[in-house]
Amino acid sequence: MADIGELVAALPDKSLLLLDDDAPLRTRLGRALEQRGFEVTLCASVAEAMTTLKSNAPAHAVLDMRLEDGSGLKVVEAVRDARADAKVIMLTGYGNIATAVAAVKAGVVDYLSKPADADDVARALLAAKDAAPAPPENPMSADRVRWEHIQRVYEMCGHNVSETARRLNMHRRTLQRILAKRAPR
């Protein structure tokens, strides 16, 4: 298979909208996609993305599902209205079947879990319309998936250990020990 950079260079329109409210992830993924040849526009909120779409209809979009000011599904519809041929990828840290189905019905071509690798995102954007996505080359371990889930719930609870422990149905001290350790590989 050809190099991702070469495939992106062959695209007639390399414009890409990246919407995520997680600033470090947005910056890192945006930079990585620029290095692969995409012309990236970064947005931090649904409102900012809607404003950007009025002036610039991108050929590609990578959108977060859950944002502080709304759902990425709303932006999928706006991208489709602005440019019907745009390829849209949905990123989510809260994957479930219902949201995946809703995203696909809205016109998303792929649905990736966070943290997504830039190469996986680029491959999904470059995949042929009817091609089945290849399985990830190095999927996260079960320990890493568990750790990521705990971190998301911890952030949703405003870094409140007691509330996080209650929602995860685990003892507070056990949660504190998990949070004190480094992330598993």
UniProtKB/TrEMBL annotation:
Cited SMART domains: REC (SM00448)
4-aspartylphosphate: residues carrying this PTM: 64
Keyword line: DNA-binding, Phosphoprotein, Transcription, Transcription regulation, Two-component regulatory system
A Pfam family hit: HTH_8
Domain Response regulatory, chain residue ranges per copy: 15-129
Gene3D superfamilies found in the cross-reference section: 3.40.50.2300, Homeodomain-like
UniProt entry tagged with the keyword Transcription: yes
Protein name per its UniProtKB record: Stationary phase response regulator transcription factor SpdR
Organism: Caulobacter hibisci
